[in-house]
Structures are given as structure tokens and as C-alpha cells.
Amino acid sequence: MSKRRLLELVREGIVDGWDDPRMPTITGLRRRGYTAASIRAFADKVGVAKRDMVADVGLLEHCVREDLAGTAPRAMAVLRPLKLVIENMAEGEVHWLEVPNHPENQALGSRKVPFSRELFVEREDFQIEAPKKWFRLAPGAEVRLKNACLVRCTGVVQDPAGEVTELRCTWDPASLGGDAPDGRKVKGTLHWVSAAHALACEVRLYDRLFTAKDPMDVPEGEDWRHFLNPESKETLASARVETSLAAAKPGQAFQFERLGYFVADPDGREGSPVFNRTVSLKDSWAKAEGK
Fold first, then answer.
1. Which of 121, 217, 233, 273 has the smallest C-beta neighbourhood within 10 Å, fewest atoms?
2. Where are the CATH 2.40.240.10 domain residues in the chain?
């Protein structure tokens, strides 16, 4: 099938792509979480040419971000977990927070999220020696846990090798819900999951296959394989997601707060989901190229 005919089928909405054996490329895109609407929008923007052409993959990523921004429900996931213990919260104490599934689309409803004494936060959100203008966790620093409360880091537990294994914090019970009644400002807001309630899952972080815009346009004598991206796929086997994602169905898309857009993969099972990253929230490649 020609590229021109392929684009025509996608634009006309004839090919869905999920199970069509004629369309392995589109099938892969759909499994990654690229919606039919985003692929059609991309095809409309690049148009149909009689000669081969190269379109910037950033345009495709823009199309799917634009489509999912208003439709994908939000959820919290921690990809590289670091335990956080709230020392001034009682053992077994759990607060069930009512959290909207989308900040603007009320039609998506809300969900209950458990908040407890032991949590997981993102390992990269903590530094022992934080640089200037670091608005995440550090010894003595106070941050907001999204939709939950304000916490302050009071201690750090390290293993014999110096690796941080646990954070000790205190919380302000009056800030339950996310804001301090005294009006104090906290710049950093982190995502989290309850350690006792979170689901262990596999997350596949997909990125661009090539480091060059056009891997075939290489200097003479160079091999296009030198432009393969060694970080085009990373599998995280010990990620944690909130309990609401236990029944995520294959093809169902979510925005993981602060991380990007992800889709449930057919390899997952109820209670043990697998998620593929469709795209990050921002185009980090464009920023890198700008430098």
C-alpha cells in the first residue's frame, strides 16, 4: 500500500489501526496511545505529496497532546518510588480525598484517592544538597502534595552506601486539601501515591527512535544507525499507580500528573496494569535543539 493511500485512509477515518494487520505502523502508534483523531489531524497538517517527504515528528506529538489535553482523565503515578513517612500522622490513619478527574472537564467526574502516613514520591523530586531555586523536597524544605496537604522534610534515611531510602516529614493537618489556612505560599507541588494502597505496575517509557530529525540525511561516510536513540525505550518494573487505575482497559488514556500521557497496554491484567508512555507533557527535544 502506498504512503499516499495510507494517508488518505487515515484522513478519511476508514482505518482505525488497532487490529488492522495491513497497518503495522499505525497499529504501533495506536498501541502507544496515539488517537485516531490525532493521527488524522497530523495527516491534515502535512498534506499529501506525490514525492517522498519527511515530516517533523514533533508535529505528530503536538497533535496527540492537543487531542488528549481535554479528554484524558488525570491520575497520579510514581515511576521511581521513594518512600515518604509522615511522622506526626497516626499509624493506620487514612484520608479519602475527593479529586477531580480533569481540572476543566467536569463531565469526567471525580474519584476517591487515599492519603495515608506512608507515601511514595518521585525519587528525582528530592535532593540532599538542593541547588538554588529548587522548589521540590530537600532537608528543611516545605512542599505541597497535590490535592492533599503541605509537608516539610525533617530527616533522611540512607543505606550504608549513602543511597537515600526514606524521607521523614511532618504535615500540617490544617492544610488538608492542599492550602494553608494562614495563607503562606509554597512554590513546589509534587505528585504522590499512598504506599499501602498503590498498585505495582510496569511502565514503558517510549521516546523517539532517532536523535536526528531525518536519520537518512547524514554526512557522507556516516552510518544512519549512529543516530539510533539508546533511550528510545525504558521499562520500569516497580512503578506505582493509584488504585483507581486497577481496572484500566487496553487503549484507555490518562495524563499522569507532571509526567505525561500514558495508555493502558493489552499486556496488563486487572490489578496489575501495564502502561505505555505516549508523549511527555512538554517537547523536551525542541528545548534541547534550541540550546
1. 217
2. 74-194
How many whole angstroms separate alpha carbon 138 and alpha carbon 147?
A: 20
Strands (E), 79-148: 81-86, 94-100, 110-116, 118-122, 142-145
Single-letter amino acid code for the residue at 288: A
| DSSP strand pairing (149-158 vs 274-279) | unpaired
Q: In the chain, list all ranges with CATH 1.10.1160.10.
A: 1-69
What is the enclosing helix (H) or strand (E) of 36? helix 36-46
pLDDT at 22 (0 to 100): 47
In the block, cell 490489578 appears at: 271
Helix axes 36-46, 24-32, angle to 10 degrees: 120
Closest by CA to 31, choosing from 274, 280, 232, is 274
The fraction of the chain above a pLDDT of 90, given in percent, is 68
Instruction: Output the CATH code of domain 1-69.
Output: 1.10.1160.10
Burial bucket for residue 159 (CB in 10 Å: 0-12, 13-18, 19+): exposed
pLDDT exceeds 60 at position 225: yes
Instruction: Return d(Cα 126, Cα 280) in angstroms, integer.
Output: 21
**pTM score of the predicted model:** 0.86
pLDDT tens readout for residues 86-116: 999 999 999 999 999 999 999 999 999 999 9
